[in-house]
């Protein structure tokens, strides 16, 4: 009986694994097929070709889009990690009047739908003449982000106080205590923040849709949407181009996941338990 | 000078120094909050009472935009689409995530491998998911209908038949259930084994143990996912926008996929109706608050907290 249950569990898990992974394989395989065969649903292409990759490279400034995305993503992730850690440390370590009320405001901002601030924030960047540039895609991260502040503060609160008090007696200033002791101790949470924001910035479509006008400034997801509009149903029906570009957009995220898998999984698990 | 006189000011100074240091560390958030949250909220409330196209100055129109919300058939349609999607998608998401987490928890070996496989789709950029939806659910050549064909089922035209667009979006959304699986799995690992041991002694079967022990013990996590998933579903944008709408397309490509966030985006950034879009945003805010509030009141009773309800 228990053996049967075990086998059933395995069969079910394997079936779901196929369901979750198959679309990737299907897409990857289609990107190596000539136009006429992309919908034949074969796993191994009948005719193997690299033509699609070469054409995508010629049809779209993919290299430029990649460079734009990488710039935005790195700046967004690094900025939000540094400032969120600073703010989180401010809330976790120091005692000051109004601390809990202020932290309540941090939490409350997470409840506010992005739609409410979306338009006025656009108007701010517009009045600064920055619409059409990459700046609005990352610069807001210089001021921290409520979710990461919350996550990092939880982590800081779990640290013992003694090393900090000891360092203080040894004459270390607040900045030194934060940079030399608190941040290194908090490395797992810092890595999680970097990875989460890297993914969020890499995959975002809405902000590039709002802020980017010229193809030369596009990020990869924005460019992929443009390619879909040009080559998809509304356009020339060159699905092999769209598929290949989708593969190229997705692969960096898969690599990121395998590089930081442990951190991703642990980070997501803690997010849930803090609810 | 007596010691009592010197000590009082000194304590105040330490406190002052600590407060100053704290504010220094928190200052990025305070500035960001004032510039990118507080001011936009005030400005958005003001803009919602105006007509504003970015080029000309806003002109005050009172509550006209809010009156228009009720007269605009697209608002009702968008609310309905979003609501149907959320009602189908959120429970499906939770049930599938719970089922997969229970399966994974029951497997003794290779859980890491399966967890990775389940999580991978979550890494896919939403724009690529929107494209995958068009491809996989394509009525003629799509993989889904080819699969259904194996069982002799003639699959619908998912991406063009208005009745099947939302189910397609719901099913596609299930593909990214992996992060919820990871969260539930972590909660499952935290359920004390003694509870199961004593239930086994009492002769409780798998179903009974799951319903009477597992689900109540992880109910705070399920509640958290329920709330977060609902808020996200009510704001879903990218997948449906990618698949069914385009910047150059000012006629509505597919009314069945017109989610509220998409309509808001179109009003704001395609038609430049910034005032009206601001009113739309406030309506969304009220709807989300109301739904979340109802969920809290209704669902809370079923949530079990260790050490009593807070």
From TrEMBL, chain A:
GO terms for cellular component: plasma membrane. It is a multi-pass membrane protein. One of its GO terms (biological process) is transmembrane transport. The chain crosses the membrane at residues 7-28, 70-94, 101-125, 137-156, 177-196, 237-259. Its main location: membrane. Keywords: Cell membrane, Membrane, Sugar transport, Transmembrane, Transmembrane helix, Transport. This is Multiple sugar transport system permease protein. The keyword Transport applies. Residues 66-260 form the ABC transmembrane type-1 domain. The keyword Cell membrane applies. It comes from the Bacteria.
UniProtKB/TrEMBL annotation, chain B:
Keywords: Cell membrane, Membrane, Sugar transport, Transmembrane, Transmembrane helix, Transport. It is found in: Cell membrane. InterPro entries: ABC_transporter_permease (IPR051393), MetI-like (IPR000515), MetI-like_sf (IPR035906). This is Multiple sugar transport system permease protein. The keyword rRNA-binding does not apply. It is a multi-pass membrane protein. GO terms for biological process: transmembrane transport. Its main location: membrane. It comes from Nonomuraea fuscirosea. The chain crosses the membrane at residues 21-42, 83-106, 127-148, 168-188, 209-228, 279-298. It comes from the Bacteria. Belongs to the binding-protein-dependent transport system permease family. Residues 79-295 form the ABC transmembrane type-1 domain. GO terms for cellular component: plasma membrane. Pfam families: BPD_transp_1.
